[in-house]
Design brief:
about 140 residues; Arc Repressor Mutant, subunit A; 2 domains; globular; DNA-binding; transcription
Length: about 140
């Protein structure tokens, strides 16, 4: 996929690739919730529409952020996984979550707090454990 960029600014270029909320939420679901299938992504609480979900999975795959394969024993089900390029977004997502906790804390749901507390207590160790988890 030939990506068109609005400018040569690195922040703007990154936003052209992963800047829409749906792409980041798909990556979040893969990274932190272990979701791998279209059906699992479709059940996310943000209620992404099926056409947008399909579009974003295709886009992220073509850009090399995720890879698409078939489920072993079920050739009808596609399995999505983060590539190295996708895994490298881990520190960015943690920083976004930390910023949200610092600035939007009253808005966070209780189920998000244990996750936030894990990396707040020792971010370096959390990142290391997440990289190990993502390699498996």
């Amino acid at each position: 996929m030939s990506q068109k960029f609005r400018s040569t600014c690195p922040i703007s270029s990154a936003l052209d690739v992963i800047g829409d909320k749906w792409s980041l939420l798909i990556i979040r679901d893969m990274m932190f919730l272990g979701k791998k299938t279209y059906t699992e992504f479709n059940k996310s609480s943000e209620k992404i529409s099926t056409d947008i979900l399909s579009n974003r999975l295709t886009k992220l795959s073509k850009l090399g952020i995720i890879s698409k394969g078939k489920q072993e024993g079920n050739k009808k089900t596609n399995i999505y996984s983060l590539t190295q390029k996708g895994t490298e977004l881990l520190p960015i997502l943690i920083e976004i979550a930390q910023w949200s906790d610092n600035n939007l804390n009253d808005h966070l749901k209780d189920e998000a707090k244990p996750f936030v507390n894990k990396f707040k207590s020792n971010k370096e160790e959390f990142v290391k454990s997440m990289y190990t988890f993502l390699k498996n």
